[in-house]
Write a structure and sequence with these properties.
Number of helices: 10
Number of strands: 0
Oligomer: single chain
Strand content: under 5%
Largest sheet: none
CATH topology: Ferritin
Number of domains: 1
CATH class: Mainly Alpha
Radius of gyration: 18 Å
Length: about 250
């Protein structure tokens, strides 16, 4: 089902997002205080100039995180930065986007991810108080660390390829690669939101798979499972929206 059909029929996208968000909050909320608004706990105090800029900020903040002995904590910190990017992207869509279906999706994403950031901060405090989950320099810990790092390092190339393909057109045999032009996007906030939210969600799915395979914190593994299920479903709906809106903005 497409995003457009989902919104018009009051169906799966928004309902599943809310349901997933409520369950994640219940898993993480132990000891959590405070509430989310436009800035509380999100690290987003102003709109990014473009959707790509929100992803650049996410990568920069992720790469500047200090090393964590507890790899579950590292996952939670990276997921927090992922959610911050989602808040920034959805806020930009709500401010400048035109498509009703995407704006409806953005409204739920903005609200739910702000709540999740506050809850993740509570989980981070809990994890910081625990001893390291992994002995240093084991095969498992090194593999987990590489998978988490790969999710961040792979986001920029994936996002730029996405914009390059959109700019080239579906029938083009040549996909150019010009980072400065790709950073500006397609010229349509709606198309940039749909396309780059796919790259964003693929990043969070990569993180979630690493946590599910190698993580040790039971609550975070349940969160990772919900992220994997919900965001894969949203990716399919966003891809359908892009198919239904093939015209280039420029």
């Amino acid at each position: 089902m497409s995003i457009s059909t989902t919104v018009h029929r009051h169906g799966s996208l928004t309902a599943r997002t809310v349901a997933g968000g409520v369950l994640v909050l219940a898993l993480l909320a132990g000891g959590c205080h405070g509430s989310a608004d436009e800035t509380n706990g999100t690290g987003v105090h102003e709109l990014p100039p473009t959707m790509m800029a929100a992803l650049h900020t996410m990568v920069e903040r992720s790469q500047s995180l200090p090393p964590a002995d507890n790899l579950d904590l590292y996952f939670a910190l990276l997921l927090r930065e992922n959610h911050r990017a989602a808040v920034a992207m959805s806020a930009l869509e709500l401010n400048k986007g035109q498509d009703p279906a995407l704006r409806a999706a953005a409204e739920h994403i903005n609200h739910d991810h702000q709540q999740l950031i506050v809850s993740l901060e509570s989980a981070n405090r809990r994890l910081r108080a625990l001893p390291p989950s992994f002995p240093e320099h084991t095969t498992q810990s090194e593999r987990f660390s590489r998978l988490l790092d790969a999710a961040t390092s792979g986001l920029h190339p994936a996002a730029h390829r996405t914009i390059a393909r959109l700019e080239a057109g579906a029938d083009s045999l040549r996909v150019r690669s010009n980072q400065h032009q790709e950073d500006a996007g397609t010229g349509s906030i709606d198309r940039d939101f749909a396309a780059l939210l796919i790259a964003h969600h693929q990043n969070s799915i990569t993180l979630a798979r690493a946590e599910l395979e190698l993580g040790r914190d039971e609550q975070l593994q349940q969160v990772a499972y919900l992220v994997l299920q919900d965001q894969q479903r949203e990716i399919e709906q966003l891809q359908q929206w892009l198919i239904q809106h093939p015209d280039k903005a420029r």
